[in-house]
């Protein structure tokens, strides 16, 4: 054995001997107290065959000059053994009380053995004996335990919302960190490597203070212990390439090593899944355009801007006027039919022979209703600017043609998306058709 083991054995033996000696000392002290309080001075009726006198119905009148003193109970050594034989075993020896013959005039008291002095009044034999009610612990006296930091396994699990990352359209890597790490540090770690990918990477972390999953951005720093990273399998550039998958897996393993975490890579076949999603996207990825062309006189840019702003459209840095709903989601946009982009400066002197209204079918919720609104705005522009609504082949668009476009090229594709579980305008659709 080592010196440490010998020392621990000696210390344990010392503690056991100390506890045993303390118990013996307590037993000796209680026995001395009981003997001092209960001194034997009478015969024990239980051993001598005597009967305890019953309490009389009527007590005789006592002389005020000679009051009768109550005789205290006495304890005899042989009785203790006899009574203890009938009592259930106790952890510590208790002093046993026997009763001596008492005068007829005195009531018979019944005493319960107590380990310490008490102020409780005596209970007589004719009265019911109530068991003492243990006092409840005082909660305020217990010091509050310090907060214990929970490990990732002890944290209640909250499911990752598919609005943030969806395994049907993204390759998701899960990481569980031992200690919280700054989200900014996570985003910077493999940034140079991931920039070489042909698809944007989506980062999601669990905010323990708010009890929710949040997208991670460089402008916000939160401690993260549960991390999810998603690589789109498909976007409008096409399905993910095999080289991008290998590069992504390498970067995720390097990130896990840096964060001392375990990377849980999905075991599915992402290339086959990407090809299936790409076929679905090709069937519903449509953009509806209504062209408003001049009848000879070009449209002045100042009038275009005035009409667009009156319709609630906003000019963006992309050179398009866009109409947004109350939630800030784009509904339809207006662009120049010619190659020149709209801008605040160019519109003062710009003239054009046509403008185009655009509706991105998979990215707009309730596409048929939005298309009706767009047609109403296009007809208003045509009336003011003295233009004609035509399709891409410059064929005039009447009510029947517009209704056919609404049903066949907006209603049916969006119904297909709903049946697939990716409704148009949903967060998943916005990521998939980006």
Task: Extract low-pLDDT stretches.
Answer: 49-68, 73-106, 108-118, 134-145
The succession of helices and strands, N to C, reads: HHHEEEHHEEEEEHEHEEHEEEEEHEHH
Q: Helices and strands: which structural class?
A: alpha+beta
**CATH architecture annotation of the domain at 285-432:** 2-Layer Sandwich
Main beta sheet: strand number and arrangement?
Answer: 6 strands, antiparallel
Strand order of the largest sheet: 12-13-14-16-10-17
Task: Describe the 3D structure.
This protein has helices at residues 3-37, 45-48, 77-86, 183-189, 191-194, 242-259, 270-284, 301-310, 367-385, 399-419, 427-432, and strands at residues 109-110, 123-124, 170-182, 202-207, 212-215, 223-232, 234-235, 238-239, 262-264, 287-294, 299-300, 313-315, 321-324, 330-336, 351-352, 354-360, 387-390. The protein is α+β, with helices and mostly antiparallel strands. Among the domains are: 170-281, Cell Division Protein Zipa, Chain: A; 285-432, Cell Division Protein Zipa, Chain: A (2-Layer Sandwich), CATH 3.30.1400. The strands form five sheets. A six-stranded antiparallel beta sheet has the order 12-13-14-16-10-17. Strands 5-4-6-3-9 form a five-stranded antiparallel beta sheet. Strand 7 and strand 8 (238-239) form a beta hairpin. The radius of gyration is 46 Å and the shape is elongated.
């Amino acid at each position: 054995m080592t010196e440490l083991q010998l020392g621990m054995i000696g210390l344990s033996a010392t503690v056991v001997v100390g506890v045993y000696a303390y118990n013996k000392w307590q037993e000796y002290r209680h026995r001395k107290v009981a003997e001092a309080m209960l001194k034997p001075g009478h015969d024990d009726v239980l051993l001598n065959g005597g009967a305890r006198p019953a309490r009389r119905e009527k007590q005789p009148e006592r002389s005020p000059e000679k009051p009768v003193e109550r005789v205290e109970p006495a304890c005899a050594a042989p009785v203790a053994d006899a009574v203890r034989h009938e009592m259930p075993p106790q952890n510590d020896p208790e002093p046993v009380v026997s009763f001596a013959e008492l005068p007829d005039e005195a009531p018979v008291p019944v005493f319960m053995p107590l380990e310490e002095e008490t102020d409780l009044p005596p209970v007589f034999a004719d009265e019911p004996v109530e068991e003492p009610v243990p006092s409840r612990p005082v909660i305020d006296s217990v010091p509050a335990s310090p907060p214990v930091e929970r490990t990732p396994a002890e944290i209640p699990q909250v499911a990752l919302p598919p609005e943030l990352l969806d395994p049907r359209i993204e390759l998701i890597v899960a990481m569980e960190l031992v200690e919280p790490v700054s989200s900014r540090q996570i985003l910077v770690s493999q940034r140079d490597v991931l920039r070489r990918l042909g698809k944007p990477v989506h980062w999601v972390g669990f905010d323990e203070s708010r009890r929710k999953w949040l997208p991670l951005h460089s402008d916000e720093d939160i401690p993260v212990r549960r991390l999810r990273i998603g690589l789109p399998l498909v976007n409008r550039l096409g399905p993910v390439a095999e080289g991008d998958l290998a590069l992504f897996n390498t970067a995720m393993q390097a990130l896990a090593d840096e964060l001392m975490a375990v990377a849980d890579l999905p075991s599915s076949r992402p290339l086959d899944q990407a090809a299936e999603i790409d076929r679905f996207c090709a069937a519903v990825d449509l953009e509806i355009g209504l062209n408003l062309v001049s009848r000879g006189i070009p449209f002045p840019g100042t009038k275009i801007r005035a009409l667009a702003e009156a319709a609630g459209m906003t000019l963006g840095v992309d050179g398009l006027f866009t109409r947004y709903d109350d939630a800030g989601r784009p509904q339809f946009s207006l662009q120049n039919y010619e190659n020149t982009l709209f801008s605040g400066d160019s519109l003062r002197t710009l003239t054009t022979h046509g403008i185009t209204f655009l509706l991105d079918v998979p990215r707009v919720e309730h596409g048929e209703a939005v298309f009706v609104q767009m047609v109403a705005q296009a007809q208003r522009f045509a009336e003011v600017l003295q233009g004609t609504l035509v399709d891409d082949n410059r064929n005039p668009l009447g009510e029947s043609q517009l209704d056919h476009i609404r049903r066949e090229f907006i209603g049916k594709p969006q119904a297909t998306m709903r049946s697939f579980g990716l409704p148009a305008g949903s967060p998943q659709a916005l990521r998939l058709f980006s």
